[in-house]
Design goal:
The chain is of the alpha/beta class. Helix content is about 55%, strand content about 10%. Among the domains are: about 5-85, Arginyl tRNA synthetase N-terminal domain (Gyrase A, domain 2); about 165-250, no CATH class; about 400-560, Isoleucyl-tRNA Synthetase, Domain 1. The strands form four sheets. A four-stranded parallel β-sheet has the order 5-4-9-10, with helices on both faces. A three-stranded antiparallel β-sheet has the order 1-3-2. It binds one RNA strand of 77 nucleotides through helix 3, strand 7, strand 8, helix 14 and helix 15.
Length: about 575
RNA sequence: GCAUCUGUAGCUCAGUAGGAUAGAGCAGUGCCCUCCUAAGGCAUGUGCCGGGGGUUCGAUUCCUCUCAGGUGCACCA
């Protein structure tokens, strides 16, 4: 039983009308330390006793008197404030952490249930740029959080590897193929393929026939034309190699790369099913599902030329995944601009009679822009993800050379810290916020940043290396009742809630905020309380605290997808 | 026009399923390395919580209207 439950128990013992659940909901954490550790507001009881809340609080506090495990319980205005016994508190939290180790923040809510996390999903033959960072990092973290909570997750990279654009690419390549271009594509595929794509789009203006040629080649691709398929495979392969370089830097792994093309042969069955269920309507030659009565705009399922669309593919993907994985949840980490699409898509699945439609969730996030406007690949307004990482690593290398030139394995550390800074920055705020990419912000390493947390972690590692004693939970916990130690312990208690919150709301930033605040508390403790001291009892207790912070910071960073250097 | 998201300190953002004096970081200023990593710590100022109305003992938080900005609205993904 934790302290909050204890408070509820004590309170309900006096206020017998109150259920445990109600009491737990009532309990809050006071805004300031000198008001105690837990508080129960008494406004609700004022009516019942026909006395002012302050008087009720006084009476309740008196009735409770003094209780085991609590230093004191007193009223303060309309609140009954509970002050925990700091020694007991320290003992309970640190012992639990000591026993549970890296599982200190987890619960078994997942129970092995299967959860699909679809994220990143870049388009083949197009640059992997700063706009992709959000889905990639948020998705990766959600995947890790769900794993930690005991789910079996399937990380899917739903590659944008199909569609008319490939008709264009194939047609362009066939028109302009030269040995130089082949070599250039092998060497530096994305920019070269993009050049072809851009040129083709430009030439459509003057050669109207190109549009039909592109459509023709896409049709050929769909029909299994050998030549088209081979080219497509080649484009896909060289692009994926590029993407994997970035994924490797981030340490991201996928279980499946089943992208759009994977579902191309599963479309006719979906069309048939929609037809059978009388959901399709003809409209201007196209087939649509009417959704206006659900407050949505109608969705085009099949174009007038007979080919299918995004929604159709996503329906096919969802049904395939349900059959294949029998998921408990199917999570799509995709930007907010696609909200309407996902609302339509979910509604259609619902109309098809599948009750699992609402196990599919769209985890959306805001849009990244650049200082000079929106991202625009064709206008050259792009920032490549790989460049961001490289610059972050460069900057880190400079700092290391300046402050810690003798550090061993500088290159690895520079990578861990530079990339860690990028990850931390991305996962620091609420997903839904739009933001403007800024080099200054990305390359700032002070204050609430990734390097700050990593630095604090490295500090704990250093202390543990120098400790010279075994660390166990057999310590004098009364050593840890000073303000700084106690604040760290209070913070440690909150880890589980932070992880659970991230899980419930699909918001990694709860963990990001949590670990930065834990690092802050630890740094205060570090400055105020010398750890490696002569007095063995003091040293052992403070080392146990340090060890716990070390474990939690490490796990927190791991859940965000960050590396945890032990020296920096 | 309809839908949706956002609006809190100079800047970037938190604010826990309404509660006690609204918090961090950055930027500014001033301290702290004979001391466990100064990528650190301490001190210091800043707020019509976009605006109006409502519900409530109590609203930054809930409802409603309104203003500002972003995004999306059928054969692209």
């Amino acid at each position: 039983m934790d302290f909050k439950e204890k408070v509820a128990e004590i309170f309900t013992a006096v206020e017998s009308d109150l259920s445990m659940d109600d009491a737990l909901q009532l309990i809050e954490i006071p805004p300031s330390q000198d008001m105690g550790d837990y508080a129960v507001p008494c406004f609700k009881f004022a009516k019942k006793y026909r006395k002012s809340p302050a008087v009720v609080a006084t009476e309740i506090a008196e009735k409770i008197g003094s209780v085991d495990l609590f230093e004191k319980i007193e009223c303060n205005g309309p609140y009954v404030n509970f002050f925990v016994d700091k020694t007991h508190f320290a003992e309970r939290i640190l012992k639990q952490a000591y026993i549970e180790r890296e599982n200190f923040g987890s619960t078994d809510v997942g129970q092995g249930k299967i959860v699909i996390v679809e994220f990143s999903s870049p388009n083949i033959a197009k640059p992997f740029h700063i706009g992709h960072i959000r889905s990639t990092l948020i998705g990766n973290s959600i995947n890790k959080i769900y794993k930690y909570m005991g789910y079996n997750t399937v990380a899917i990279n739903h590659l944008g590897d199909y569609g008319t654009q490939f008709g264009m690419l194939i047609s362009a390549y066939k028109k302009w193929e030269t040995p130089e271009i082949v070599e250039a594509i092998e060497k530096d595929p994305i920019p070269e393929l993009l050049k072809l794509y851009v040129r083709y789009n430009q030439e459509i203006e003057t050669h109207p026939g190109y549009k039909d040629e592109a459509r023709y080649w896409f049709k050929e691709l769909e029909n299994g034309n050998q030549e088209a398929h081979k080219l497509w495979e080649w484009f896909r392969e060289v692009s994926l190699k590029e993407f994997n370089r970035v994924y490797d830097m981030f340490g991201i792994k996928f279980d499946s790369y089943a992208g759009e093309s994977f579902y191309s042969d599963k479309m006719p069955a979906i069309l048939d099913e929609l037809e059978d269920k009388c959901l399709l309507k003809d409209s201007e030659g196209a087939k649509i599902v009417e959704l206006s009565e659900y407050g949505l705009t109608d969705a085009v399922i099949q174009k007038s030329d007979g080919s299918t669309l995004y929604v159709t593919r996503d329906i096919a993907a969802a049904t395939y995944r349900k059959r294949t994985y029998d998921f408990y949840k199917n999570i799509y980490v995709v930007g907010a601009p696609q909200k309407l699409h996902f609302d339509q898509w979910r509604k259609i699945i619902d109309l098809m009679g599948y009750d699992w439609a609402y196990d599919c969730v769209h985890i959306m996030f805001g849009t990244v822009s650049l200082e000079d406007g929106a991202l625009a690949t064709r206008k050259g307004r792009v920032v490549f993800l790989e460049d961001v990482l490289k610059k972050a690593i460069e900057k880190t290398t400079e700092i290391i050379n300046e402050r810690n030139p003798n550090l061993e394995d500088k290159e690895t550390v520079a990578k861990q810290v530079g990339i860690g800074a990028v990850i931390f920055q991305e996962l620091f705020n609420n997903r839904i916020k739009d933001y403007m990419f800024s080099w200054d912000k990305t390359l700032s390493f002070e204050g609430e940043t990734g390097p700050y947390v990593q630095y604090t972690y490295a500090r704990t590692c250093s202390l543990l290396r120098k400790a010279g004693t075994d660390i166990d939970d057999n310590v004098d916990y009364s050593v840890l009742t000073d303000k700084e130690s106690f604040n760290v312990i209070r913070k440690l208690e909150g880890f589980k809630a932070a992880v659970l919150g991230s899980h419930d709301k699909y918001e990694p930033f709860f963990i990001t905020r949590y670990i930065v605040s834990l690092a802050q508390e630890f740094n205060r403790f570090y400055h105020e309380c010398p750890i490696l001291v002569e007095d063995e009892e003091v040293k052992k207790a403070r080392l146990l605290l340090t060890k716990t912070v070390n474990t939690v910071l490490k796990k927190g960073m791991e859940l965000l997808g960050m590396e945890t250097p032990e020296k920096m």
